[in-house]
Amino acid sequence: MLTGNVSERNLLSFTNLKYFSMNSPALVFDFDPEWVPPFQLTKIRLGNVREKLPAWLFTQSSLIYLTIVDSTTSFEPLDKFWNFATQLEFFYLVNNTVNGDISNVKLNSTLVWLVSNNLRGGMPRVSPEVVVLCLYDNSLSGSISSFLCDNKTDKSKLMHLDIGYNHLSGELTDCWNNWKSLVHIDLGYNNLTGKIPHSMGSLSNLRYLYLESNMLFGEVPFSLKDCQNLWILDLGHNNLSGVLPIWLGQNVRGLKLRSNQFSGNIPTQICQLHSLMVMDFANNGLSGQIPNCLHNITALLSSYASTRKVSYAVHSPEISFPIIITCSITMLIKGNEREYFNLMNVIDLSSNNLFGNVPLEMYMLTGLQSLNLSHNQLLGTIPQEISNLEPLESIDLSSNHFSGEIPQSMSSLHYLEVLNLSFNNLVGKIPSGVQLGYSNLSYIGNRDLCGAPLPKICPQDEKSHNTKPKGEEDSDDKSQVYSCFYMGLGIGFAVGLWSVLGPIFFNRRCRHAYFRFMHRMYGIIIQKLNLRTTVESSQGDLGGFQEGSNHISY
User: Fold this and answer.
1) What would the pLDDT profile of 332-362 be if each residue is shown by its tens digit?
2) 454 and 482 part of one domain
3) What is the DSSP letter of 74?
4) Which residues cross the membrane (predicted)?
């Protein structure tokens, strides 16, 4: 994070300088445009250049290695810049604002890596000496036919061709016979159409083929069986049809065929691909049952898959330094689609028409890290053996017909980050465990599931759910005792009263005797009252008695 100005005054004494690197956002280049350095560089690396490129750069006739990154500098005049680049062996521009049409540019460097520079126009001309050509993530347009067919030569040394993430269109022309040195082809994320040409089968050295996210149609040509060194085949997001290819070589590590129109069964020949780590057949029209031989894929049994990078070394007599190119594959895992440079063990068969039980052999894949079987017609129970998938980070079994209880053994999947069992026929209580405590979205659509995180309380938990603290329970017990006491007292009184009144109401002799007794008692009371009235009158308090007598009269 150096700051300040850099000018010729800082470099005057370095007469033997060979390698110059400067990349700091706060530095300002302030070179005299007429200055000629006392040195001849072989390598230079510049970054965060805001103004023009230093004029002395074009005086470096011995330069073989040029890197410019993250710069908004003007590359004008472009003709001078591209002519200067023809002397380079290693030409590396990444994330700059070149903004130039390269249709008429001829690239001559052994390694050309021009990524994210907003380059425009059609494909450039390429010298037979170019070994690596990467024009990834620019704004190139037009057809690639002229590039492939007009450069016909058996002397081409091109090993790495990456023109993905552009606006190229037209068909994949059938001129691949002239590019037999190719090891890596990436044409993904363009607007290419037509069929995959048969001549691609002549690329016996081909190890990586990326054609994803175009508009290709038709069947995968049988001629690709001759590409026995193929490691990654990515044909996802096209309109390809027919059955899944069963003729792939034993070296295949990544097979991505998602979002096409493939149909038929998943062939058992897939189980013979012992190196296969990524099996992505999602969003097609596949039917039938899942093969019960997947445990024969030995790579899916290894728990060290995520440490494996997919890379290769570029060997050429013209390259004076080693070049290792690390490849990737775009995968949809845990709900996010991104590039993975370290391959994971992944099976994604979602959004097809698969039916039947999931074979128990699936739960023998002890190295599996992501499993997606959602949106099919699968049925049966989730077995306890699912705990064998210890490295599992994501599992999606949603929108099927799975039944039975969720096995308690799932709580032992300690690496699990994403779980989706929604819209099935699962029943019973959700097992406890930190890994299973997701939101209710993981379980909705299972009418007979209960327990946290769902709001539905399981029957076996209702009793404990309604219990109160000990102090409250003691208070409730005392209240219940008093209630029972008073209730018993009331019942006893009622029974005693009824034992007296019952005979009176239902026995004629008792009833007459009772009324005679009451009449006699009434007479006695009247006599007592009259006697009291006489005494009080003699004391001159008759008014008060009369008022009181009137008060108690019937």
Assistant:
1) 888 888 888 888 899 999 999 999 999 999 9
2) no
3) -
4) 485-506
